[in-house]
Specification:
This protein has 639 residues and is an alpha+beta fold. The protein has helices at residues 8-11, 50-59, 175-180, 275-286, 288-291, 297-305, 308-313, 319-331, 341-349, 372-375, 453-460, 463-481, 491-511, 561-573, and strands spanning 20-22, 27-30, 73-75, 94-96, 100-103, 128-134, 145-147, 153-158, 161-164, 170-171, 189-193, 203-207, 212-214, 230-231, 236-237, 253-256, 264-271, 356-357, 365-369, 386-405, 436-451, 518-525, 535-544. Helix content is 22%, strand content 20%. Strand 18 and strand 19 form a beta hairpin. The longest helix has 21 residues, at 491-511. The radius of gyration is 29 Å and the shape is globular.
Length: 639
């Protein structure tokens, strides 16, 4: 595979517009959507997912991340439709960034008396000195080498430091300005390293005029100057400028080019509902005034008889299907039009239907609610808290990239269904005024576990649970207080999230899928009505870009669910980091550790690509008794 090829899932994620990518001989930045090569027949596909489009349009009203007042569409990144023969097909352009380079050759001596002289290439005596040059000074046309005044060519490497701000703006460090301030100087400059670790305290930039700057100084607030709003992926300057929350010019911050905090993609994901379910839901929503009071399928028939518009709209559906969907929408508080797509997904998966969707190769969703005798053959007491198990034989996941942040990732969702779309106010746009967003669709399988709401409420009423929850929620609130505009998750979410991580780890050992291939979708939803039950469930699934989906190993876990659950919970009783892990107190922290109870990399934390909440809000003491916290566990392993 060519080294300059990225998968579609990488473009709609880690290496989206505005991200820096290291190639073998240079660093580039992925260009904005305006420059993508989307012309020509068959270059891209439109992904139809109405719920996701409506969610984005609703949450991004007045936001520069999408064009306002225009219909939004989802498109795949450009793909080769096979019409270009052996030549290059359409692609995603990239621009050179950063534009400052250092020569690989270690020069003799030390600029401006920066250290003792040493022989060329000798990195063991004195500081090592390398010439730094700009892109325009490299040899054309490929610009991969620098030719010095003596005619000697030098290989070059992009400098590893750039600067940016929390609004996503990015630019080269103005090296001459930070070294000389307002004094103009055109003397050559060098990067001088005294140690072997590349630590900023051992590295400085020196100029032939005698001035120098220790890189450690660039971490000082305001040392890099103010942000000008540069957006090199769009090749412009932000027309809104760059101001902080107080209306003052934003100070630039030092950023390592390849650091993980250089690019945090903002991604929205939905699980597609069956097309017929979605269409019927839209029709009933439009006519709900006429159908709200129907109490049976026979009354649906009567409503059709005396309402011509209703009869025409529902002619393709039976009275029984219409009545069942009316009841589902009423109990789910109009799930299909809810702002959080998880509501509609949960209401369908937890509907109790024996067959959900259609069993066909092109179905968006095909699932089956399993009889309890299939997964709880012996009446296992440990499974009393499990309401239902649904084998999702086929599902479609639609993933859309709508922006990105730098320095700090977007806050995770809160319990009331607000996604990070509405909270990430500092997100940067993918283009100048995008009318479409890049998205991919992946097919796979999953296992939906519905938790008994009554068992959860009983567990919450226990005295020891209340005591533990009080301390846990204090930590959650301390964490949220340090992040304006963010609300903490509740303990029900922490319970389900911890169970999801425990099961994902065990399922990976049981079914053969690698743990990094599994994903989660946690449903900790409030009651549909004021006096209704909690809606608790979780979906563990895997998906690939192929249209055929996956191999069925995850669905087969349903037959062994009791064994898998027992093994998953037993592993959590003792952690390899105990007693440190079990004794962790979230109240004493204000960083991300404040969202953890007894949770660490030895027990509950998993790959962040598999976790929907960046490994936050976890506590195994909510699931099983630990050596430090007895009595607060939801599951009783001794029963």
């Amino acid at each position: 595979m060519s080294k300059d090829v990225l998968r579609l899932s990488q473009i709609v994620g880690t290496f989206g517009p505005g991200a820096m990518v290291d190639l073998p001989d240079r660093s580039v930045m992925i260009s904005g959507l305006d420059n993508w090569e989307m012309g020509g027949r068959g270059v891209f596909r439109v992904i139809e997912e109405r719920r996701l489009v409506e969610l984005l349009e609703q949450r991004l009203q007045g936001d520069p991340r999408i064009a306002q007042g225009k219909p939004l569409s989802l498109r795949t990144p450009p793909i080769d439709p096979g019409l270009f023969g052996a030549g290059p097909g359409p692609g995603v352009p990239a621009t050179i960034f950063p534009t400052w380079f250092s020569c690989d050759t270690v020069e003799p001596g030390s600029a401006a008396g920066g250290g003792a002289d040493h022989r060329e290439g000798d990195a063991t005596r004195g500081p090592r000195r390398r010439r730094i040059v700009q892109w325009t000074n490299l040899d054309p046309p490929q610009r991969k080498k620098y030719r010095d005044d003596g005619g000697k060519s030098h290989e070059v490497t992009p400098l590893r430091f750039v600067c940016g701000c929390e609004h996503g703006h990015l630019q080269d460090i103005p090296w001459r300005w930070v070294v000389h301030s307002e004094v103009k100087c055109s003397e050559p400059m060098w990067l001088e390293e005294a140690g072997t670790s590349g630590d900023p305290r051992d590295t400085k930039v020196v100029c032939g005029c005698g001035k120098s700057l220790l890189l450690e100084q660039l971490f000082q607030a305001g040392r890099l100057g103010f942000c000008r709003g540069e957006r090199p992926w769009i090749a412009d300057v932000d027309p809104a400028g760059c101001k902080d929350d107080n209306g003052q010019p934003t100070k630039l911050r030092l950023l390592t080019r390849s650091a993980t905090n250089a690019y945090f993609p903002q991604v929205a994901t939905v699980i597609s509902l069956p097309e017929a379910e979605d269409r019927l839901g839209r029709i009933i929503t439009e006519h709900l005034t006429d159908l709200r009071e129907v109490g049976s399928a026979q009354e649906v028939a009567m409503a059709r008889k005396f309402n011509q518009a209703l009869r025409a709209a529902l002619e393709s559906y039976s009275d029984e299907d219409v009545f069942a969907r009316v009841q589902q929408l009423k109990s789910g508080d109009i799930a299909s039009t809810a702002p959080d797509p998880r509501v509609a997904e949960y209401e369908l998966l937890a509907s109790g239907r024996m067959l959900i969707g259609v069993d066909s190769p092109d179905a968006l969703l095909h699932a089956a609610t399993l009889p309890r005798s299939a997964w709880d053959k012996g009446g296992d007491p440990l499974l009393k808290g499990i309401e239902a198990l649904v084998a999702v034989h086929r599902l479609r996941e639609v993933v859309c990239l709508y922006g990105f942040t730098r320095f700090e990732s977007s806050p995770p969702m809160s319990d009331d269904g607000l996604e990070d779309i509405g909270l990430a106010v500092r997100g940067a746009p993918l283009g100048s005024n995008p009318e479409w967003l890049p998205a991919i669709q992946q097919h796979g399988e999953g296992l939906f576990i519905q938790i008994d709401a009554g068992a959860v409420e009983t567990w919450l009423d226990r005295d020891k649970t209340r005591s533990h929850v009080k301390r846990l929620m204090t930590g959650f609130r301390n964490w949220a207080d340090s992040k304006p505009g963010v609300r903490p998750r509740g303990v029900v979410y922490a319970l389900l999230h911890s169970l999801s991580h425990a099961l994902m780890t065990e399922i990976a050992l049981d079914c053969g899928y690698p743990a990094s291939a599994l994903k989660e979708r946690v449903y900790a939803l409030p009651p549909a009505t004021p006096d209704g039950p909690l809606r608790c469930g979780l979906l563990i699934y895997t998906a690939t870009a192929g249209t055929q989906g996956t191999l069925g190993g995850l669905v087969e876990v349903a037959d062994r669910f009791s064994v898998v659950l027992h093994s998953a919970l037993r592993r959590l009783e003792v952690c390899s980091s105990d007693p440190v892990c079990a004794d962790h107190d979230p109240v004493t922290h204000a960083d991300d550790r404040a969202t953890h109870g007894a949770a660490c990399h030895g027990c509950l934390l998993i790959a962040e690509t598999s976790c929907e909440a960046r490994n936050l809000f976890l506590d195994r003491a909510l699931l099983v008794e630990t050596m430090a916290e007895p009595g607060a566990a939801f599951f009783d392993l001794e029963s």
